[in-house]
Amino acid sequence: MFDVEKIRKDFPILERKIWDDKPLVYLDNAATTQKPKAVIESLVNYYENYNANIHRGVHKLAEEATSVYELVRDKVKNLVSCKDNSEVIFTRNTTESINLLAHSLGESLNEGDEILLTEMEHHSNIIPWYLLRNRKKINIRFVPITDQYELDYEKLEKLVTKKTKIISVTHKSNVLGVINDIGRISTGTSGCRPLLIVDAAQSVPHMKINFADLGCDFLVFSSHKMCGPTGVGVLVGKKESLEKIPPFLGGGEMVRKVTFDNFTSNDVPWKFEAGTPNIADVIAFGTAIEYLEKIGLENIHKYEIELTKYALEKLSGFNFLKIYNSRGVGIITFSNPVVHPHDIATIVDQEGVAVRAGHHCAQPLMSRLGVLATTRASFYFYNTKKEIDIFIDALQKAFDYFEVGACKELKQERVDLVSVQKKDK
Ligand SMILES: *Cc1c(COP(=O)(O)O)cnc(C)c1O
Questions:
Q1: Ligand 1: which of 118, 119, 124, 218 to mutate, judged by most atoms within 8 Å of the beta carbon?
Q2: Which residue's C-alpha comes closest to atom 12 of ligand 1?
């Protein structure tokens, strides 16, 4: 498939030692990913060689910076197969992209209109809608998940009514790792078709996405979760939808003409990019896209399935764990009633293993799962089975320390989940 040891050499940070002598085992990729040298060099190259503000200057540097920045739009267009590079808008992150949509789509909503979210959403796909609800007196409903930690598509269909104006759903849960069938959502709601927003923060970095095939109206994701720098997000939208909605932020760049009385907006996509954009990071994001495409997103996805299977199999040795994963890829979340996730994360950190403990910005989902917090290991293409072994040994140390092996009552449930995963493959 690809040579993971060779790939690891592209990432300077993977040579780091933690606590003097432990190799870094970075399993917190759902929070942010590491950066290959090419991306870091692209940032430095911009600042050393053609730093200038874009779109306004006629001088050579400004022209160079503008054309490289605008070329990244084409790279995103090719990455997600949307129709035109003007359908690609740069924001600060996924969160800002969703706030933009909530603000700008929200303008045309009326009292009593409904927005449909799911029980597995990240806070960034909940709070912007709560803020809108406060302004517009709209209603928000949540599609439940099943006991197998998947979206309940039947309930979803029943929840869509004439009042439903927007459905905003995660493509892949940052907690459960499950990949939602967006096609089932878009076709399932024909007749009274609400706008469909897909939070692809966890999918675009890990698998080949085709915007047209997904059948959604808007797609949002973040550069930093796909080997790019922080501070860059993307909003992809159908041109006709983007042209219809008002701008989010106002200022320079997003206007065509301003008088003492009023203004006319610039064309899409610049209409949504007020002020000097994050030029350097957008350019380095372009390098990250090139890097990922060289490895191949299909390869990345296949490799992560393999890593997930391997890790689940190893974790099945801990028969006292509740694992919230039946079909998830690349993300494994688990808990145990005896030992707190923060204690697990702290102990495995002593072995150089970085995992996440907490609510993962999904408190409503935590309450649905009946816990306050969980531990989460999340993989990327530079992780190895050897690293998973180190993680499992570190976990063993944590469980030995807290003597959790003594409680075995969760065994049956765990076996069922692992077997679902196996059957699926
Ligand atoms: C990380 C994440 C977000 C938020 O991304 P930011 O870059 O922090 O704005 C939203 N949704 C999902 C599913 C995520 O994993």
A1: 124
A2: 201
| Residues with a known catalytic role | 361
Instruction: Return the pLDDT at 191.
Output: 59
CATH of residue 231's domain is 3.40.640.10
The percentage of residues in the chain with a pLDDT greater than 70, rounded to a whole number, is 94
pLDDT tens by residue, 113-135: 999 999 999 999 999 999 999 99
Does residue 418 sit within a domain? no
How many Cβ atoms from other residues are within 10 Å of residue 425's Cβ? 8
Same domain, 273 and 342: no
**Ligand 1 pocket residues where CB is under 6 Å:** 30, 93-95, 122, 124-125, 170, 174, 199, 201-202, 222
- Strands annotated E in 223-268: 233-237, 255-258, 263-265
Kindly state whether residue 413 falls inside one of the protein's structural domains: no
Strands 322-323 and 88-91: unpaired
- Residue from 236, 238, 241, 174 nearest 201 by CA: 174
- Among protein residues, the one with the nearest Cα to ligand 1's atom 5 is 94
Give how many domains the chain has, as a whole number: 2
